[in-house]
Amino acid sequence: MKLDPELKLQILEKVGIYSNRFSIPEPTILLTTKEVLDAPKEMTEGRRTSAYKYYGVSYLQHNLVFINVRKIPDEKTLENTIVHELIHMRFPYLAHGKRFNKLVRQGLRGKSFLPYRKRTKAHAI
Ligand SMILES: [Zn+2]
Question: Which superkingdom is the protein from (predicted)?
Answer without folding.
Answer: Archaea
